[in-house]
Write a structure and sequence with these properties.
Elements: E1 3-6, H1 9-19, E2 21-28, E3 31-36, H2 57-60, E4 64-70, E5 82-87, H3 89-102, H4 110-117, E6 119-124, E7 150-155, E8 158-163, H5 166-174, E9 180-181, H6 184-204, H7 214-219, H8 226-231, H9 239-242, E10 250-256, E11 261-267, H10 288-307, H11 317-321, H12 328-348
The chain binds iron/sulfur cluster (2 copies).
One iron/sulfur cluster binds near residues 244 and 318.
């Protein structure tokens, strides 16, 4: 792929901001949250070393939106091009998952597709590892593998920029004055940084090696008591699903306006007690442990069966955000150990 070099981020961001609204992560407390880029330079630009706290779905799937109207059908409004800087590999992989659900051939959400087509993605390498990052357990890397327009890798004296799409190539070709060539030494430095971060990730997650594919573990653990045990710490706040970049359940409800009917679409959460309730009072997921189990089944079994990939990118946001200290890695590890014991017992019978 093509790479170029730039000493400072500001000229690159200014050039992007001239063409479209630009959002980038700002350190707020311990976390990075997206905010609008300030070209005046009064707010200094930071390179976010780890993934932002905000899941990227917030820009593609609003928490609540108008989905349909009657009698006149609703057409998606024009979406102005916008750019987001600082997405990490886990963010890009979460977009790939959302694309499968909302932008595939069979079921296309025109509102999602419109936003997606107008989004310019500037990803960046992870320079550090978050305490709860575990992307390496699910095929992730601490640098973008695909799905970006431009990628930024921090090196000692500047930043290596890589174009990953036609939109990205058009941008670098349009602004040749911003960039110089990359040298072999710079690329070697980038690769060493990437390997160092990868090693840290692997060290941090060394204890979470599972004894079988996650699908098999979760699918064959449906009678396990571990889900109910985990539920004892859960306060049902739903943070794990709201902050998860891949959780995408929604519900629809109707409202009557003065001269038309409107169907609204709103984020839902399988951790909510009424999530699966139906008319007549039946509720297959009334028990919290069953809802935790369903969350894992959706992520590691149903989604994999339907789309050929896990619905978890190992970003760790659900662990960061959990008031009850429920850690999905630990739940999988416990299930994995129990599964191994059961398999051993079958052999010795
Ligand atoms: S389940 Fe947790 S770790 Fe996996 S993608 Fe969602 S927030 Fe990230
Ligand atoms: S974030 Fe933790 S406490 Fe809140 S619903 Fe999810 S598992 Fe339960």
């Amino acid at each position: 792929m093509e790479t170029v070099f730039i000493n400072k981020l500001k000229p690159l961001l200014d050039a992007v901001a001239e063409q479209m609204a630009l959002l980038l992560p700002k350190k707020t407390g311990e976390h990075y949250i997206y905010s609008r880029y300030d070209p005046s330079g009064e707010i200094p630009v930071e390179f976010n070393n780890i993934r932002p706290c905000t899941p990227i779905k917030e820009f593609l799937l609003p928490v609540c939106e108008l989905a349909a109207t009657s009698p006149e059908p609703l057409e998606p409004e024009d979406v102005k091009p916008f750019a987001i800087f600082g997405l990490k590999d886990c963010d890009l992989r979460s977009i790939e998952i959302l694309d499968k659900v909302f932008a595939d051939e069979e079921f296309r959400d025109p509102f999602y597709v419109k936003r997606r087509e107008n989004m310019f993605i500037i990803s960046s390498d992870c320079f550090e590892v978050g305490e709860n990052c575990f992307c390496n357990l699910f095929g992730g890397r601490p640098f973008a593998q695909s799905g970006f327009d431009l990628n930024v890798s921090k090196v000692k004296d500047g930043f290596i920029i890589e174009a990953g799409s036609q939109k990205g190539r058009d941008f670098t070709e349009k602004h040749p004055q911003l960039f110089t060539e990359t040298s072999g030494a710079l690329l070697a430095e980038r690769d060493e940084n990437r390997s160092r971060t990868q090693r840290r990730l692997e060290q941090n997650n060394a204890e979470y090696q599972f004894d079988a594919p996650t699908k098999e573990i979760v699918e064959k653990s449906q009678d396990s008591e571990i889900f109910d045990v985990e539920a004892r710490n859960c306060v049902e706040c739903q943070a794990c699903t709201r902050i998860c970049p891949t959780c995408h359940c929604f519900y629809l409800y109707d409202t009557k306006q003065k001269d038309y009917f409107a169907k609204m679409k709103m984020w839902d959460s399988c951790m909510r007690v009424g999530y699966a309730a139906v008319a007549g009072g039946a509720n297959p997921y009334k028990i919290l442990g069953d809802r935790i189990k369903h969350r894992l089944l959706h992520k590691f079994v149903y989604f994999l069966d339907r789309y050929g990939k896990d619905m978890c990118v190992g970003c760790g946001r659900c662990v960061d955000g959990c008031a009850g200290e429920v850690d999905i890695r630990t739940v999988l590890k416990k299930l994995s150990e129990e599964f191994k014991d059961k398999e051993k017992a079958k052999v010795t019978k």
